[in-house]
Design a protein that fits this description.
The protein is α+β, with helices and mostly antiparallel strands. It contains 11 helices and 14 strands. A hairpin with a 6-residue loop joins strand 11 and strand 12. The longest helix has 16 residues. The two termini are 15 Å apart.
């Protein structure tokens, strides 16, 4: 995340993510699945503005993309079916910070969305992490351990967006996704990200998952990242949820086929879907992808890069 201070506000740019690797190790006794995943933040950002107030209320405003007001076909798009009230996870994060601190202070939050929901891009999780960080900084109570505990209690992949005391970047996440170890490598990845007109339910994808005896190791993708060579990284892309998600919607295979046909075969699904991404820095390939996507009804194509940033502590020093 990128943190900016003004005279009276904390502004956080909350990045999306893609999964370069995701293996499911099995179901846990608590009902969650044990996973190993390599997460990469990317340069597609939501914007969260936080202003501290003296009352205890959390005033929340949600801003959706301008295209929704001019394109009636997108108004019922599940990508923007996001709670605009106190049910939003960002508000839940702030409420938990209030409770943990025992503060009577409140805030005004404005969240401007660019990252679609139900996409496997971590938009809601990143927004929640941003809200937790902004409230702790805005109330002058920054505490990394508390931020991690609150984020982990709300969602499995939320702690990833906090990074560590040194950096925000690639990370290996284990457990149910809440245990993150930063990876020092910072490969210069450029990619195209697509999101179809439907989303994927994480719960349904996991219900459709069939455990396999043979498991993939994350060591190969980490080694490839350390080389910094996109082709080697692309050869190791893997997502164990890709097959069960494909059983729920044909959009997964359609996106991957589109990438391959347009000359970007180093591709995979992100998270539990429904977004897919391809590693490519070819502008001609991007033009072909955008043209083909428009013809087949893919509403969103993003050009993005792997994003690496300083730690929260260094940014707010």
């Amino acid at each position: 995340m990128i943190i900016q201070r003004t005279a009276d506000k904390i502004i956080v740019l909350a990045p999306a993510k893609v999964n370069l690797f995701l293996e499911v190790l099995g179901k846990r006794s608590d009902g969650y699945h044990e996973v190993q995943t390599v997460l990469c933040p990317i340069s597609l950002f939501d914007r969260l503005s936080f202003e501290a107030t003296e009352g205890g209320e959390v005033d929340f405003q949600l801003r959706l993309p301008d295209a929704l007001s001019t394109n009636p076909l997108q108004r019922d798009d599940p990508a923007w079916n996001i709670p605009s009230d106190q049910r939003n996870l960002a508000v839940r994060g702030v409420r938990q910070v209030q409770q943990a601190l025992g503060t009577r202070r409140g805030c005004r939050i404005e969240l401007t969305k660019s990252i679609p929901a139900a996409a496997g891009l971590g938009g809601g999780s990143s927004d929640t992490a941003a809200a937790v960080v902004a409230s702790l900084l805005g109330w002058d109570k920054w505490n990394r351990s508390l931020a991690h505990d609150i984020c982990a209690s709300i969602g499995s992949d939320i702690p990833f967006f906090l990074g560590d005391e040194q950096q925000i970047g690639l990370a290996l996440a284990t457990g149910r996704g809440e245990k993150c170890l930063q990876i020092a490598a910072q490969p210069p990845l450029e990619m195209l990200v697509t999101h179809p007109p439907i989303g994927c339910s994480t719960q349904q994808v996991y219900l459709n998952y069939v455990n396999t005896a043979k498991k993939h190791s994350f060591s190969e993708i980490v080694a490839a990242c350390e080389t910094g060579e996109p082709k080697k990284i692309g050869a190791e892309l893997f997502n164990a949820l890709q097959f069960p998600a494909s059983g729920l919607t044909d959009w997964i295979d359609r996106q991957l086929k589109l990438f391959a046909t347009c000359g970007a075969p180093l591709a995979a699904m992100s998270g539990s879907g429904s977004s897919c991404f391809a590693l490519s820095s070819d502008s001609n390939c991007e033009a072909r992808v955008r043209h083909a996507a428009a013809e087949c009804g893919l509403l969103r194509v993003y050009s993005a890069k792997a994003w690496y940033g300083d730690s929260i502590e260094h940014q707010d020093a």
